[in-house]
Design a protein that fits this description.
Length: 358
Amino acid sequence: METSDSSKKYFTKRLTAWHQTDNDRSLPWKSEKDPYKIWLSEVILQQTRALQGLPYYLRFVEAFPTIKDMAAANDDDAFRLWQGLGYYNRCKNMLNTARFITNDLNGTFPDTYEGLLALKGIGPYTAAAVASFAYGAPNAVVDGNVYRVLARYFGIEEPFDTTKGKKVFALLAQELLDKKDSAAYNQAIMDLGATVCTPRNPSCNDCPLQKKCVAFEQGLTGLLPVKSKKTIVKKRYFNYLLLQWKDTIWVHKRTGNDIWQNLHEPFLIESEAPLDANEVLSHELFKKEAFIHKDISYTGEVSQRLTHRIIESRFFIVPLLKKTDISDKEGKWLSINNLKKTAFPKTFLSFLEKKLYF
Ligand code: SF4
């Protein structure tokens, strides 16, 4: 690891000069000073690439131009706008925070890193981003881009996802920060990580840091940064029954501490392995006397990868001969023509699009 003072000074100087002359990455929230819009963009961009997040940001700003508008939003409207971004807890926390700031803080964002960090759902990264971009506070952002640029340039082999590693990177990032213009510096390091020092095939020949970069000099770009924990991806099997009564289907809102909270889905049977139609028929729903249906038919599957899970979903159509009470207080019969007005997980949307419901 090469962290001499001269190497650190060189880093900050070259990075900020590059930002002024060569950084042409353009995104609508750059140079934004409104803490609400900066916060909104940061919430959307957690776990989401900038280009994917961009249309969502624009839609949210149009629907809710101020934090008060977001605080007054109907939950379902906000979830529908969020549809397709995943990690729906982000949307839920965002609405809660907007309501807290509007009702308890008179609609004014805290203007310090510590004040922002005290808000629910705002972690060190978002607090530093809002504090520096909106108020010029001297706080360095540390995200995946920053870990990568620092690990490679300084040749840091410490894993970035351990308590010790997080501390090493946070201290170094804070030391390197240009305190006179923290907003420009933070933007520069994130943009360099996103456009030049990319996870695969970094453009070292276009990089302002190449001359003193340890990873470049020692051929370590493919090995840095180091992650200690390998993500274990598990499969979950969802078997969905599309209970159809005339031109309606039955859906319910997901609740509880699980994925896709507050989104709607058809009747779900989760299993240890994918079920076929005969296995589905042994579910207790089909034993109810009032449950009278035509033949069940398998109609396709959709696979969706989340960070730690792969969700394998199979869909079965079950036309009913009589409207049945499914005894689920979050459930309702929804007109097929109105499906677009409801917020669904991406998996179910893909199915609906494939089967031309939309
Ligand atoms: S020289 Fe290459 S590896 Fe080093 S910081 Fe620049 S892009 Fe990253």
